[in-house]
Every structure is written in structure tokens, then in C-alpha cells.
Amino acid sequence: MPLTTLRRLFQVVALALLPAGATAETLEFRQCVDLALAQNPDLAVSRSQIEQAEAGLLQAEAGRLPRVSLSLISTHTNDPLGAFGLKLGQERITGGDFDPARLNDPKAINNLNTRVELAWPIYTGGQLSSYVAQAKALVRAAQSGDIAARQQLIQQVLMSYQGVHTARAHVRVAEQALAAAEEYVRVTQRMHQQGLAVKSDVLLARVYQEDARLRLTEARNGVASALDRLKLLLGKPLDAPLDVGAPVLPRLLPGSEQELRRQALDGHAALAALSSQMEAAAAQVEAARAGKRPQFTVTLRQDWNDKTIGLNASSQTLVGVLTWTAFDAGVTRASVDRAEAGRRELAARLRQAQDGITLQVADARRRALEAEERVTAREMAVEQAEEAQRLVKRRYENAMATVTELLTAQVQLDRARADLVAARHELAVQRGELQRAVGVLTGDPI
What we know:
Blueprint: H1 3-16, H2 29-39, H3 41-62, E1 67-77, H4 80-89, H5 100-104, E2 109-123, H6 127-193, H7 199-234, H8 257-267, H9 269-289, E3 295-306, E4 314-323, H10 331-397, H11 403-438
Antiparallel strand pairs: 1-2, 2-3, 3-4
């Protein structure tokens, strides 16, 4: 096992055993991903599907092997034919048993048959081989589905992890707004005392101050909510202490839109799962067609017959059975048609999924590029809003602007800063979504 894998496993175990009342270690994004993949209840579904598919494969492969059964059959009868046959099986027939009176009216006989039987399907028309091929394809489908589920979970962790940083950035914006509001109240009060501002200006400044204080409270609640969402993804209780490490920014996948679409069609786990399901459906068709072919089974039986439990009167039987259904009123044909229809349905679903994946890739790439432009535009907007606020504030202090103009400039600055925070969050999310759409999202290339 690689050293990095061992280290991550140790981190997951250590974090899972952390006492609820202890101060939590700050979790980096990779640690959050490892915890989510190890503890998130949603992944238990895909893991169970893999286990079911693997058990189905073992069952299908076991169908090729001989089956041994043990039986103990107790019989009490005075039926003439049955009584004679059982006594003969016990090897206790004497000359007197051929007396017609005894043959026609025998005494009741007890027999205990101990049997070991081996049945081996030698040829099943390809049915067992088809079942094995179907089971193997279903295992591959479950494994690919698990990969797709993991990538979806990683994207959710990314959104929640960055959501915490985004919420904290909104807190910083709200703190800046509150600090500015408090300063405006002081400035306006001083100017009112100097006769340079009216009472309504002071009231307006205080209204803005209270609004800024409310927005700060909302922003802090947003941090708590973001942490709660992350805890749920990590499979941790809501009262568990948790903090996050440095923010992350997924890399923008290189290549043109056509290249990324081709990469997604070749390697996307969800498409691989559907493709494997199609292979399983094709194997089901072959298993149904096997009903038209002959079946040959060999049975080897060892019997012991006695009045009580014992290994007396031993006998062996070897039976070969060749069966071929000549007419079944169309049952086999209907079974084949049903399996063919299921295969065609999966083929159509695969084509739909392929179209959907190509659309997701194209849309995600456009949104990721758009997010980059939006961040640049929002950064410029913040710079311009800061300069505009600075100029309006200077004019207000010189009694050349109204308090309404001052607060309007501050509101525009607050909005520009909040828009920049949202744009940076969207950039990280859209880059991660592009990686997920292409099917290459992991916790490492972030």
C-alpha cells in the first residue's frame, strides 16, 4: 500500500475517533474529501450495490460447479410394490418373499434411506456462461457507478467547503460595511453639531448602521449554516467542532470543448456504468436463447438402505440426462424478446446519457470561462466603487454632497464586494463542475 494512502487512512481513522467535546483539528479540503468518502451515508448505497453484484458473480460462477446434497428419507409402508422394493433395497429378500400371499399382502416395512447425490450440469446451452458474463458486467457497472457517486460527493464537498470560506468572506464584507456605518454616524453627528448637517442626516446614518449590523448577523449565521452542511456531508454530528483550512480553487481543464467532450465520452464513470449494464443485458439475451438449446446433466448417487440409520445395503447410480425442450408455447421466444427489449432500452438510455454528458461539458466549460471573466469584472468594480466612495465621502465631509449620496456610494461598494465574493465562489464551483462533467474530479488536482 502506498505511503500516501496509509497516511490518508490514518487521518480518516484519527478524525473519526476524535471525541465530540474536543477541539477539532482544522480540516484541509483533502481531509474533508477522505472523511466524506469514508463516512457519508449516501456512498453506503453504492458500496452495497457493489457487494450485491460481487455476490451475484460468486453465485453465477458457483452454478458451473457440481452440487452435492445429503438426504435422509424415512419410509413406512405396506404397499405391495413399495414394501417389496424397499426390502429388496435393504438386500433382505428371501425365497419366502416370493410367496404370492406375502407379495400381495405384505407386512408394513420401515426403511431409512441415506443418500449422497452429486449433480453436475455438463452443458446448459451457454446459459451458465451467460449468467457469469452478466454478473461480471454488473460488477463493473456497480464499480463505475460508485466512482460516479464519489465524484458527485466530492463536488458537493467542494461546494460546501468553499461555501464556508464564501460565508466568512461575506462576514468580512459585512464587518467593513458596519465599520463604515459607524464612522458615518460619528461624522454625521459631528457635522450636525457644527451646523453642517441636519438631524435627518444623522437618522439616515443610524438606519444604515442598524442595517449593516443586521447584515453582519445574517452573514455570521451563514457561516454556521455552511459548516453544518459540510458536517452532514462528512457524516459528523452537527454539534461536533469543525473548522476548515485554506480555500481551494480547482484548475481549469486544458483543451478545447471538442477535446473535453471526447475525453468525457471515453472515460466518464456514469457512461461506463451504463455501457456495462448494456453488456449485462446482452448476456441476459444469450441466457434466454439458451432455453432453445439442449441441456445435459450428470448425476451420481450413493444410497444406503436399512431399518435404522446405518451404511448397509450400499448402491451406486450414475445418471446422464439430456433434455431439449421441443415446444414451450412460445415461452422461450417471449423471454428472448423481453431481454432484447431491455437491451434496446439501455442502448437508448446510453445515447441519452452521452448527449447529456456532452451538453454538461459544453455548458460547464462556458460557465467556467464566464466565471473567470466575472471575477475580473467584479474586481474592477470593487476598485471603482472604493474610489467613488472615497470621493463622495470627501465631498460630504466638505458639505458638498448629501448623506444620501454618501450612503448610496457605500451601498454600491458593499454590493460590489459581495458580488466579488460570490464570483470567486462561482469560479471554484464551476471549475469543479467542469472536472465532474468530464469525469476526472478527485480531491487531488484541486
